[in-house]
Amino acid sequence: MGWSRAALVLVLATGCSGGGGAPAPRSTATGPTPSGSVTALAAPGSKDFGYFPAVVSSGPPVRLSFDRAQFLTGDAANRAAAAHGDETPVPNDYYVVNDNRRLRTLALAGDVQVIGSQALNGYAGDRSVEARPRTVPQLLGFVGTAQGKETGFNLVYGSGGVVLRVEEQYQP
């Protein structure tokens, strides 16, 4: 499929997450309700946040289904929570907005960096949480669990929209 430069800029400007724009008035409660899947395109170096509801392909290139969301903190989190009719100030100073449940398909680079913080590292108890490198098979196994589908990840894209880095988002 050929994308014009203007269409690609529009997709990137409206589809990437971040703390900037005002969220649409719908809450973030349940898991994704896909109305189809599209292949995600992102500019090199751009960042994203969201969830991996499913593994699309485990053999090169690894492809994951991605549900984009916004991880907001501070004043942006409180404004979004108020707009959604939720508690303010927000607990733990963060709020996740997931108003668009469209699923995208992302490809992982062959040398993708995977970093776990809590759930992906098997955290339990009162010990400190340290980010640690994980493998793609560990990520794929985790994404296949109920907990894995509910865990948010930060992404960094390379050229062609390939994911170079996957880092579990720490959530207290």
Overview of this protein structure:
This protein is an alpha+beta fold and 172 residues long. It has one domain (20-168). Helix content is 19%, strand content 33%. The protein contains four helices and nine strands, in the order αββββαβββααββ. It has helices at residues 5-15, 74-83, 136-143, 146-149, and strands spanning 37-39, 47-57, 63-68, 70-73, 94-97, 103-116, 132-134, 152-157, 163-168. The strands form two sheets. A five-stranded mixed beta barrel has the order 2-3-6-9-8. It has a two-stranded antiparallel sheet with strand order 4-5. β8 and β9 (163-168) form a beta hairpin. The radius of gyration is 16 Å and the shape is globular. Mean pLDDT is 79; it is low at 1-38.
Strand order of the largest sheet: 2-3-6-9-8
Largest sheet: 5 strands, mixed, barrel
Averaged pLDDT, please?
79
Q: Report the uncertain regions.
A: 1-38
What percentage of the residues does DSSP assign to strands (E)?
25-35%
State the shape. globular
Instruction: Please count the beta strands (DSSP E, at least 2 residues each).
Output: 9
User: How many structural units, i.e. domains?
Assistant: 1
